[in-house]
Design a protein that fits this description.
The chain is α/β, with parallel strands linked by helices and 262 residues long. It has one domain: TIM Barrel (Alpha-Beta Barrel), CATH 3.20.20.60. Helices cover 46% and strands 15% of the residues. It is built from 13 helices and eight strands. Helix 12 (216-225) links the parallel strand 7 (208-213) and strand 8. Helix 2 packs parallel to helix 3 (51-61). The chain is globular and about 70 Å long. The model has no long low-confidence stretch (mean pLDDT 96).
């Protein structure tokens, strides 16, 4: 079976630089994949990516060594299993709030006897290899999102679930849950304390910790703190930022130029 480079990087003590895909298009996904990201997450929870678009995006990512990961919409067995069958090598599940949620997540993403995943890896066989079923349980990476006050209260119970490989912090939702301003970087002090606590408990349980960031400077800071999976921006934000930078220079050079119609 094809190796999962996320596991390889983590086992070497390294950190994964992850990109985020919000645009439901295979060409934009392929373009992002060719920029050297360690992994790319197709976001099916927020935004406008549906299942069919996700499949074509996974196919595009497969033109490179970038690891394909998907954030599913919810803790629901059908979409988790179909996402893995499509060839995702990692899944991020939102709103994991208690031990039972984490146990269900592990069960839905692992074949028996470890879990209850149904067999039918239609495209996963093409991406992973003919021996996919034999090695999938030890190759696929399962992330639980920690982003609520309830999850904080149940953090050790969640982290102690066997088969849970990693957690992923959603800073905006976590901030909202704690009465703070929702943002990715430069979190309010209460939210920052919670992030540090999650990281420390994850390390104590031997679970990889990941976090969403808005800028590379913030991601590098998180790596220095001990995070081994850092997301920097998204395809849509990077496109907007690039266009804004160009137009700022154009407006500065020709301040009288205004956007107009035909």
């Amino acid at each position: 079976m094809r190796e999962n480079r996320l596991r390889t990087i983590w086992q070497s003590g390294g950190a994964v630089s992850n990109g985020w895909l919000a645009i439901p298009n295979s060409f934009s996904a392929e373009t992002m994949a060719h920029q050297g990201w360690d992994s790319l997450v197709v976001d099916m929870q927020h935004g406008i990516v549906d299942y069919q678009a996700m499949v074509t995006m996974l196919q595009a990512i497969s033109t490179t060594n970038t690891v394909p990961v998907v954030r599913v919409p919810w803790l629901e067995p059908g979409i988790l299993m179909k996402t893995l069958d499509a060839g995702a090598y990692g899944v991020i599940c939102p709103m994991i709030n208690c031990r039972e949620d984490a146990q269900k997540l592990v069960a839905y993403t692992h074949y028996a006897p470890q879990g209850t995943r149904s067999y039918g890896p239609t495209r996963a066989l093409l991406y992973g290899g003919a021996d996919y079923a034999k090695h999938a349980n030890n190759t696929i990476v399962t992330f639980a999102m920690i982003e609520t006050a309830q999850a904080l209260d149940n953090l050790d119970d969640i982290l102690s679930v066997e088969g849970l490989d990693a957690i992923y912090i959603g800073p905006s939702d976590l901030s909202l849950a704690l009465g703070c301003t929702p943002k990715f970087d430069d979190l309010d002090p209460k939210a920052e304390v919670a992030v540090a606590h999650i990281l420390a408990r994850a390390k104590a349980h031997g679970v990889v910790a990941g976090v969403h960031n808005g800028a590379p400077e913030a991601a590098l800071k998180r790596i220095a703190e001990g995070f081994q999976f850092v997301t920097i921006g998204s395809d849509a934000r990077l496109m907007a930022a690039g266009a804004q930078a160009i137009m700022a220079k154009m407006r500065a050079a020709a301040p009288s130029t205004q956007a107009g119609g035909y």
